Amino acid sequence: MKQQKPYVIGLDLGGTNSVFGVVDKEGSIQATMSIKTQGYDRAEDYVDACVEALQPVLAQVGGIDSIGAMGIGAPNANYYNGTVEQTPNIQWAHDRVVPLAKLFADRLAIPVALTNDANAAAIGEMTYGVARGMKNFIMITLGTGVGSGIVVNGQLVYGSDGFAGELGHVIMRREGGRPCGCGRKGCLETYCSATGVARTAREFLATRDEPSLLRQLDADKITSLDVSLAAAKGDRLAKEIYEFTGEMLGEACADFATFCSPEAFIFFGGMVKAGELLMEPLRRSYDEHVMPIFRGKAQFLVSSLDGATAAILGAAAVGVDLNP
After folding, report:
1. For the chain, how long is the longest CA-to-CA vector?
2. How many Cβ atoms are within 10 Å of 154's Cβ, its own excluded?
3. pTM given for the model
């Protein structure tokens, strides 16, 4: 029987930075490096730059012969085809379909798999985090946007084309909904992401008269962190912004429960740092809106994986099954 190689490479491919990690079987990151994602006209040039930058990292763990596989988490990634497709924020992929898994596999001579970044987070949580042992859960990533990974009966849901699970683009407000980058209006992402919280702050400041610490800031530059800091100081308007956000997210989760009856909703991303400002109205709204047969069954958990390493571990977990 062929012996399993000790390491897997995980790549968290973001719009600004590409972060690599070499991960062992226990989920410990042994070495990391990063390069800029942008600045390349062709995907082939990007992959060449990545492979070159990886060489010193690989040398730390015994070279490529110690690597069993590679996993990639990327926006607009198709698990079935190993491609990233029309990715708007990446120069070398914004108007084309890029066979990224094959490009890396050919250059490194190891098996490579990829999936979208939220699915990678779900796989990482199931392999290394609070979802270990769970067979049915929904991972919701709350960052610049809202992403999701859905696990049913121990399997990630990909759908017929590899793009299933875009819960951030479920429409929450069909009348007068906010424009979304996907081209539709009223998507969950436009309200419950970090950028959505900032949009809510600007709307509240423009339509309400009560005093707020947020009025001391340039409204166009307000961030979700600004809202969190103001709320922590007791600012009433800032607290109401998170109340609005949490209530909508709870309402959405109540709807999500109807199609897969998860044992847990797991939240990850910068927004979860708001803590109970977000989670308390979320749970309350969920209990108010969920069907009675589902009430009291799902846990509401925050990812146990450190933010700096979770994306790498999730990407690495995508490649674990390829390591014979």
Report:
1. 72
2. 10
3. 0.86
